[in-house]
Amino acid sequence: MATTHKTRMLIIGSGPGGLSAAIYGARAGMQPIVVQGLQPGGQLTITTDVENYPGFREVIQGPWLMQEMEAQAVHVGTRMMYDVITSVDLKGPVFTAVGDSGDVYEGDTLVIATGAQAQWLGVPGEQELSGKGVSACATCDGFFYRGKMVVVIGGGNTAVEEALYLTNHSDEVTLIHRRDSLRAEKILQDRLFANPKIKVVWNKRVERFMEGENGDLRALALIDTQTGEQSEILTDGAFVAIGHAPATELFKGKLPMDETGYLLVEPGTPKTEIPGVFACGDVMDHTYRQAITAAGTGCMAALDAERYLAHRDFAEAAKVEA
Fold first, then answer.
1. Active site residue 83
2. Both ends of the chain: CA-CA distance in Å?
3. Which residues contact residue 78 at a Cβ distance below 8 angstroms, ignoring those fewer than 6 apart?
4. Could you confirm whether 299 is annotated as catalytic?
5. Model pTM?
6. 280 flagged as catalytic
């Protein structure tokens, strides 16, 4: 039988943004509910080594970090719900979400932390070698390839930025693009072509990620998009940089988004155009996409939600007294 769950702060999504919002919201007495979604814990649950999250001198594991964040959120008063939201009503003043289970969730405020997923090529070996030489985040994993050969796959701003970033760690960076020109902004292209550490391979499509004897990535199998000629390129690390897809399907037609689907917020805040509805983490951040920035915006969302409720409650009390 379907149940209705009510809370001062409803959070959809359970990555670093959602769980940080829950921790701050619970400590503010809002008794938040987190609906975890299809991937409880977010992208960090499929990330092995995490070396750049503050507070840990040794490498930690992504799933462990998310387990600890969830445990902390529960410890301070968060309710975790294992459900997937299928529809939302943002008309207010109470925001409503319906789960796949049939349960209804009502929140005086709503924090959207549904995240984004890296887009993959979908070729053999890609997922099998993920974390073993294949990555979708140079900022996250580039440090592990100090002094090694790396390749970046893509032709847009993200790919060029990733290639430039990787030159901090490697003197042999190869950008592989399936066309004969880049889509990236000209200023980024100028920086790329001027960097002696970067070589560009044109008109090549990745057909397969090839495993070495040690079980890690050894090479990429390529095919020329014009001639059909097959070739291989040896590499220690491959970074797929063909974009991210924010999980915003639920909110189409209900909240403003940019042309790529990221939720639009008031600059410098997690506030959407609907008072009481906030967005945090990768669902609104197409620039940084880091666990620490997601956690930071989750904190901001909770603080702003608490302030929103305080102002609303004060205004309602003033009406009653009048």
1. no
2. 42
3. 22, 23, 25, 26, 31, 32, 33, 34
4. no
5. 0.79
6. no
